[in-house]
Amino acid sequence: MMEILCWLALSVALIRLIVALTNYLVRQPLSKVPPVGEDALVSLIVPARNEAEHLEPLLNDLCSQHDVKVEILVYDDESTDATATIVQTAAAADARIRLLSSTGLPPGWLGKNHACHEAALHAQGDYLLFVDADVNLEPTLVVRAVEYVKKHQLSLLSIFPRQRCETLGEQLTVPLMNLILLSLLPLVLIRRSRRPVFSAANGQFMLFEAAAYHRLQPHQHHKADRVEDIRIARFYKQQRLRIATLAAEPDLTCRMYTSYDTAIEGFSKNVLQFFGGSALLAVLYWAITTLGIFPVVAVFGLDGLLLYGGLAVLIRILVSLTSHQPVADNLIYMIPQQVTLALMLFKAMTKTARHQLIWKDRAV
User: What H or E segment, with its residue span, contains residue 97?
Assistant: First the structure.
C-alpha cells in the first residue's frame, strides 16, 4: 500500500512539473509594441458594486489607453457608497464615460452576471472588454490585446493579471490560485485544442469579439453561475469558437484582497471550481501535494526526501517565474500556504453545503 501511495505522489508531482515547465516555456505574451492604425471601437465595461475606492485609478487607466478608440461603460449595481458620484464626476470630464444604473436584480440572476449582460446591451464597440474595478492597465494594453485577438482569430481572450501582494496575509493566499492553475493546466492547449476540458478564464479581464458575444449572450446563458468566466470559456469552445487565456501579463495588475481574512472569504466561493466543482478532487489534490512526501520517504528514505522535495521546489519556482511573483516568498511560505489551502477548501465545502456563500451582501 505504501509503495502505491509513493508512486502516486511521485507521478502527480512529475505531471505537475511537466505542466508548470510547459507554461513557463510556451508563454504566449502580448506584443510589446502596439500596432499602428487600429480603428476598431472597444467598449470597456466595468461592473461595479461598492467599488468607490477602486474606480478613480481604474477610470484614469481606461481613459489613458493609447492608439485605440474606446467607450467606457460603468454599470452601478445598486452600490451604497460613492460609486455613482465618482463615475458622474469622471463622465463630466470625459465624454467617453457613461454611467449605467441597475433597476434591480431579477430573480434567477447573480449580480455580476446581470451587470455584465445589461451593460453589454448598451455597448456599441466592435470588441467588448469586461474588467473588474480593482485592476490596473498600462496605456497600450487594450490595443495590444485587440491585436492578439485579431492575430489568432479569437472570439474570446482572457488574461490573468499579475497579482500584487503587499501583506503577509496576501502572500499566504493569493499565489495559491496560480500554483493550482499553472501546475495542472497547460494554457497553450486552451487556444490550440478544441476540447472544452481545456478551458480557463478570469473575469477580471475578458475581451470578446462583439458579434459572437451578442449572438450567444454568454452572461445570460450563465446567469446563475458563480464562476461564469470559466463556464463561458467552456461554452465558447463547445460552440467551436477559438479562445485563449494568458497568465500574469505584467502590464495588467491587480490587488485582489488586502488581508488574509478577506482573501480566504473571497477564494472560498470559487476555489472548488479549479477542480471542476468537485470537493473530492480538491481534497485529493491537497492530500497528495501536502502529505505525498511521507510515503515517498517511507519507501526511499533520504533519497525520496530529496527527490520529492526537489520536485516541489522546482514546481514552485516555475510557477512563480511564470506568474511574475517572488520566488523566495513562495518557497519560504510553502507549508503555511498548504495549511491555508486546507482552510479555503474547508470553508468552501461547508458554505456550499449550507448554502451560505455570500459576496458583497448577496447570496451567490
Answer: strand 97-101
